[in-house]
Amino acid sequence: MQWTSHLDQAKLAVAALSRPDLSGQAFEIGTPDALTGGELAEIMAEWVDRDVTFKPMSPESFGQRVGDAFNSPGAAFALGDLYGSIAKLNGDAMAIDTSILEETFNVKLSSVADHIKS
To answer: Structure pTM?
Structure first.
């Protein structure tokens, strides 16, 4: 899966403000790297300097844990539904070619590892 940070979103927004020719267009954004849970755990382990493991859970369980953490039943439902839908997609159905974003907006997007390090 690909994520994005608010910093990369801001880079793209600032670049878009100087591009009136792109008005009315929509762009999917994400990090250049799509990571598995295990790969994300490896990157996190380097950052916290201890072992981190990925333990898969159902979309409903994930949504419930986040909803409980934020005391938000709505968030629990929304995240469970979102990740349940994502889990039904085939392979790289959500993959975004970020080279198009970088070329169109003349920006360099950060990897997940770079986000974590910063």
So the answer is: 0.72
